[in-house]
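Narrative of accomplishments. A recurring question from our advisory board has been how the design workflow behaves on a single, concrete structure rather than in aggregate. To address it, we present the structure tokens for one chain from the evaluation set, followed by the sequence designed for it. No filtering or post-editing was applied between the two.
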């Protein structure tokens, strides 16, 4: 369906819905009665669409009750491999299809961007979505018809049914497409299946999130159908007769409950998406479709691939992530036209021997969350089109010395992800990618220090080395002049060289929380773009006076050993959130009253707070209310809890009840005269 056609359809639908709304606002409730029964005739069942806007339910009493709201689809099954590590890989889940245009393989990654995407949108009237809410002429005739109310209703019903069904069919036949989603249909509408003109003309049928459970055999009469999308439904079985749809090039049955796939080799498919089902095996005949360019089998229960997968000579994208694969067949190396390959979240221990030399056109490769070792990195540079090394959550201990995996003479590596591995030293070989590397992720390893190799990464924008064993930040760190984001939380950093941050003019965020820092560089105020500074859970005794020169938005210095807040912090008018609880601050921080944009402050558990009896008592009152509310919640949950949970629930509720001050809320809030407030607290 072209964009022009789509726009025309939306105009028709909007005008039709608007006409009905205007007539109803004039008191013509019979038009709504007609619309209601038209829906019953066309869809065989009342339903409600969920997609943008508010629910437009009838406000006029009818014989039928209100339109029921569509239920949420049952969630997809969890990934088979919930390994340690929180990956942030682009394009990792690719089963969703939400584009209604005729398939174009150049933008199918946008169509299939997530295998577990949840339903989005709010309620909207069915009539407005289908354009069957009663046009202006129908509403006018229904409003002006004379006689008894039953006669008016009978005339309106007949007129609306005939006109609306006719208009809808004409629109479908003209555009040769029909696409709706988030509608509680349960089956493909009989209006489509029984129309000979629709059967002879329809080319695109997309019915996502419509609770369809069966693919009817009548659908096999749609001989001109080219694109069929029944994803995110409840389909369990694919009829063998589907091969009769000889013109079909696009088939998306992802996120259903399919356990078996029939022989599809009779189809001329270029795009096939079966991701998010319950497939444990796939027939070898699927590889007989040599014209196939896109194949998605992700998020299933596959333990092996067909040995003849190499016959898919035109395949450009292969998605087999989230399965139980322990190896890849050597025949996969015959897929020399492959540009995208996702095999993450499997149980792979190695890649085929000729994998690197064969996959020379790959530009997207994700092998994260497997059991691969450093041997995998050898000869990676032979894949000259590769843009990212996504190797997180594997068993890599080091980069082989002298390896050419990061040689960028023929490769433009933008991102390297080696997070959640077993690396003990900073991978010096990464300096080979200095000219192109933008994002380096080494979090959750065992790295103790940064070598001089890091100073060559002048174009690096994001560096994540959190959850390692780093102890210092050296002076040559200042060579990372393009750095925008620095994450080094949960290390053992106790010192930062005075010049480590000098020249980092683009640095916007620093996360150094959960370390052993005692002091910060005095020139921290030179970071003129620093908006977020996380320093909680360190051993800081003071902050640099120049910190007020930073355009901070969020500052967290809680759980340190600070004795005072710098006066200059009062100049930081951009500050919105300030957290400095659990320190040793004794003097009232009056300078904070000048921060006009400050929206949140947490300054609990500081000595100066003892002067504010008001705050202390309000906190007690608040905590009491929260605790009582939680106890009630726990008691409510206990009724639905399993036997194994009841004991724990009861114990937690009992302990919380013991900790509540038995004084009444009114008694707690009987506040004595206290000194005036000088600090805004939330």
């Amino acid at each position: 369906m072209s964009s022009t056609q789509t726009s025309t359809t939306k105009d028709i639908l909007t005008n039709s819905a608007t006409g009905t709304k205007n007539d109803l606002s004039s008191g013509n409730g019979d038009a709504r009665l007609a619309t209601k029964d038209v829906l019953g005739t066309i869809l065989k069942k009342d339903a409600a669409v969920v997609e943008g806007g508010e629910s437009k339910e009838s406000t006029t009493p009818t014989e039928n009750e209100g339109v029921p709201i569509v239920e949420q689809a049952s969630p997809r099954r969890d990934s088979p491999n919930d390994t340690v590590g929180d990956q942030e890989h682009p394009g990792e889940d690719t089963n969703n299809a939400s584009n209604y245009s005729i398939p174009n393989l150049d933008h199918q990654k946008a169509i299939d961007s997530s295998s577990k995407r949840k339903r989005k949108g709010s309620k909207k009237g069915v009539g407005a979505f289908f354009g069957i809410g009663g046009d202006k002429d129908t509403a006018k005739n229904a409003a002006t018809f004379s006689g008894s109310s039953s006669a008016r209703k009978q005339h309106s019903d007949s007129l609306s049914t005939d006109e609306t069904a006719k208009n809808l069919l004409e629109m479908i036949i003209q555009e040769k497409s029909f696409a709706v989603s988030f509608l509680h249909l349960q089956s493909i509408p009989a209006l489509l299946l029984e129309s000979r003109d629709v059967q002879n003309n329809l080319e695109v049928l997309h019915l996502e999130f419509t609770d369809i459970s069966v693919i009817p055999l009548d659908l096999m009469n749609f001989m001109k159908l080219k694109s069929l999308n029944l994803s995110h439904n409840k389909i369990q079985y694919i009829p063998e007769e589907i091969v009769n749809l000889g013109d079909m090039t696009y088939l998306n049955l992802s996120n259903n409950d399919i356990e078996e796939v029939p022989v599809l080799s009779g189809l001329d498919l270029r795009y096939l998406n079966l991701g998010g089902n319950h497939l444990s095996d796939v027939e070898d005949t699927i590889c007989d479709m040599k014209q196939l360019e896109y194949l998605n089998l992700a998020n299933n229960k596959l333990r092996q691939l067909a040995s003849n997968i190499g016959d898919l000579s035109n395949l450009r994208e292969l998605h087999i992530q989230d399965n139980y694969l322990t190896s890849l067949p050597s025949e996969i190396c015959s897929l020399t036209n492959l540009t995208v390959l996702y095999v993450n979240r499997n149980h792979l221990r190695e890649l085929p021997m000729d994998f690197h030399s064969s996959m020379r056109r790959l530009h997207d490769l994700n092998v994260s969350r497997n059991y691969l070792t450093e041997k995998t990195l050898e000869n990676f540079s032979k894949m000259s089109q590769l843009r990212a090394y996504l190797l997180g959550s594997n068993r890599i201990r080091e980069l082989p010395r002298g390896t050419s995996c990061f040689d960028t003479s023929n490769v433009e590596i933008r991102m390297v992800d080696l997070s959640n591995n077993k690396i003990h030293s900073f991978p010096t070989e990464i300096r080979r990618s200095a000219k192109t590397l933008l994002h380096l992720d080494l979090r959750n390893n065992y790295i103790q220090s940064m070598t001089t190799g890091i100073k060559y990464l002048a174009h690096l924008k994001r560096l994540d080395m959190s959850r390692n064993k780093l102890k210092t930040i050296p002076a040559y760190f200042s060579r990372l002049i393009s750095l925008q984001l620095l994450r080094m939380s949960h290390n053992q950093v106790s010192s930062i060289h005075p010049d480590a941050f000098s020249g980092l003019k683009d640095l916007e965020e620093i996360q150094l929380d959960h370390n052993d820092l005692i002091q910060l560089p005095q020139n921290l105020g030179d970071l003129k773009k620093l908006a977020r500074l996380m320093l909680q859970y360190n051993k800081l005794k003071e902050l640099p006076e120049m910190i007020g020169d930073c355009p901070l938005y969020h500052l967290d210095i809680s759980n340190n050993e600070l004795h005072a807040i710098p006066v200059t912090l009062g100049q930081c008018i951009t500050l919105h959130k300030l957290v400095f609880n659990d320190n040793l601050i004794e003097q009232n921080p009056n300078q904070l009253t000048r921060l006009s944009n400050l929206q949140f402050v947490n300054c609990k558990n500081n000595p100066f707070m003892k002067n504010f009896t008001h705050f202390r008592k309000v906190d007690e009152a608040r905590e009491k209310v929260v605790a009582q509310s939680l106890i009630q919640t726990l008691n409510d949950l206990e009724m639905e809890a399993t036997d194994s949970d009841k004991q724990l629930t009861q114990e937690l509720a009992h302990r919380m009840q013991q900790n509540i001050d038995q004084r009444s809320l009114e008694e707690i809030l009987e506040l004595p005269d206290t000194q005036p407030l000088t600090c805004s607290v939330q």
